[in-house]
């Protein structure tokens, strides 16, 4: 049960939304399924890991014309996967490297599911942006948004 | 937890800012002053997620904007008179609170800017099924605005897209009959005011948020047959051109 850290970063490099969670697939008996299992020392540096990969994202941004940038960075066994919208909003997902066998198969599946996950979050983000009470680079505090992101998480990861 | 007021880096503006003491309702909702701890998945929120219980988190939860289909391909027709009246009201409202012609144009530009930021994301999202490419080159971005974005906003693409011959950071988009300013007559003593400044703002907002920093202004260039003909002059910042030169090579 892998743990994930997802964040939306605005054009001014501020986090607009953050979420820590664990995969809902194959839950273990211990603890609440879905609750992230990051150790305390990892937990506190997650935002730093995400933000430190921004340089790589901004480099890849002008080299690739894809929305989903794929795996862009790694930090001591934590992978960073990135997605960027046309309006320069970055979606980053940090997760632990899977240690089990058939890693290649895992990676391949991961890439398509991550792409779908990011696409759906992009939909949600644009819906939020179209709301006149929200403007670019504000934090997304809506409980409804949060609920929907968690439902997408449950569906794909 | 300290009682002192803490700085909220994530909130620039907003109706109400959240503090460390604000607990999310039913464990949902991100609070920037608490970070990811605020919307952690807990026993009770998990229950809601797993059982897909309908839950009223906000007064508008039952008809939330997040549940509507954003990819609607159905074209909506809008009456030109309602648009014109609305735009006329926008112009007169901005005029009342402005100090001069330049100020009025700036205000209209500012209103358009936010529209540009939003339309860009929306149009790109809707286009995703046909074309999954992100615009990363200046000329392609301008072509996207000239055709796709214009079509989404005004029903047809703009008339011309040109590059200035003398100055290499200037581009021009020409619209022979701008929809917004169709029924607006500029009084003589208002000089070179052009109400399409709002459209110029839309272009500027779209370009800026896509990372092609530019300044856009609207100018009337009437011809005998097209008295409303408007040229949108796009002055691209130097740094964008430098980036284009550096990254202009074949894509990997």
Automatic annotation (TrEMBL), chain A:
Pfam families: Sedlin_N. One of its GO terms (cellular component) is cytoplasm. GO terms for biological process: endoplasmic reticulum to Golgi vesicle-mediated transport. InterPro entries: Longin-like_dom_sf, Sedlin. SUPFAM superfamilies: SNARE-like. This is TRAPP subunit. The lineage of its organism: Eukaryota, Fungi, Dikarya, Ascomycota, Saccharomycotina. The gene is TRS20.
UniProtKB/TrEMBL annotation, chain B:
It is found in: Endoplasmic reticulum; Golgi apparatus, cis-Golgi network. GO terms for biological process: endoplasmic reticulum to Golgi vesicle-mediated transport. It comes from the Eukaryota. Its main location: endoplasmic reticulum. Keywords: Endoplasmic reticulum, ER-Golgi transport, Golgi apparatus, Transport. InterPro entries: NO_sig/Golgi_transp_ligand-bd (IPR024096), TRAPP-I_su5 (IPR016696), TRAPP_component (IPR007194). GO terms for cellular component: endoplasmic reticulum; TRAPPI protein complex; TRAPPII protein complex; TRAPPIII protein complex. The keyword Transport applies. Plays a key role in the late stages of endoplasmic reticulum to Golgi traffic. Part of the multisubunit TRAPP (transport protein particle) complex. Belongs to the TRAPP small subunits family. BET3 subfamily. This is Trafficking protein particle complex subunit. The gene is TRS31.
């Amino acid at each position: 049960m892998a743990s994930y850290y997802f964040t939306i970063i605005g054009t001014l490099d501020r986090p607009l939304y953050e979420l820590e969670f664990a995969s809902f697939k194959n839950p273990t008996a211990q603890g609440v399924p879905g609750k992230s299992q990051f150790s305390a020392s990892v937990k506190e540096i997650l935002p730093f890991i995400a933000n430190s990969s921004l340089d790589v994202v901004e480099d890849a941004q002008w080299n690739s014309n894809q929305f989903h940038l794929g795996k862009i960075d790694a930090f001591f066994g934590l992978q960073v996967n990135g997605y960027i919208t046309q309006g320069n909003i970055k979606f980053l997902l940090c997760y632990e490297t899977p240690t089990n066998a058939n890693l290649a198969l895992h990676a391949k599946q991961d890439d398509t599911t991550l792409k779908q996950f990011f696409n759906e979050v992009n939909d949600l983000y644009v819906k939020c942006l179209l709301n006149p009470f929200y403007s670019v680079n504000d934090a997304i505090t809506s409980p409804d948004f949060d609920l929907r992101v968690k439902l997408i998480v449950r569906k794909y990861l | 937890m300290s009682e002192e007021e803490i700085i909220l880096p994530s909130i620039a503006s907003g109706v109400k800012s959240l503090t460390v003491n604000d607990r999310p309702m039913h464990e949902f909702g991100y609070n920037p002053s608490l970070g990811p701890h605020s919307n952690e998945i807990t026993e009770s929120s998990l229950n809601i997620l797993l059982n897909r219980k309908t839950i009223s988190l906000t007064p508008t939860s039952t008809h939330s904007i997040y549940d509507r289909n954003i990819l609607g391909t159905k074209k909506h027709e809008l009456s030109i008179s309602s648009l014109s009246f609305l735009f006329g009201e926008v112009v007169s409202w901005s005029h009342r609170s402005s100090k001069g012609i330049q100020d009025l144009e700036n205000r209209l530009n500012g209103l358009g800017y936010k529209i540009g930021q939003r339309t860009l994301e929306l149009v790109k999202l809707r286009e995703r099924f046909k074309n999954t490419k992100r615009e990363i080159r200046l000329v392609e971005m301008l072509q996207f605005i000239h055709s796709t974005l214009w079509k989404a906003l005004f029903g047809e693409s703009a008339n011309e897209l040109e590059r200035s011959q003398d100055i290499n950071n200037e581009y021009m988009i020409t619209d022979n009959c701008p929809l917004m300013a169709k029924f607006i007559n500029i009084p003589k003593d208002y000089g070179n005011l052009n109400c399409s400044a709002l459209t110029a703002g839309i272009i500027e907002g779209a370009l800026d948020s896509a990372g092609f920093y530019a300044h856009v202004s609207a100018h009337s260039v009437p011809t005998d047959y097209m008295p409303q003909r408007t040229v949108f002059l796009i002055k691209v910042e130097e740094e964008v051109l430098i980036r284009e030169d550096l990254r202009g090579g074949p894509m990997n």
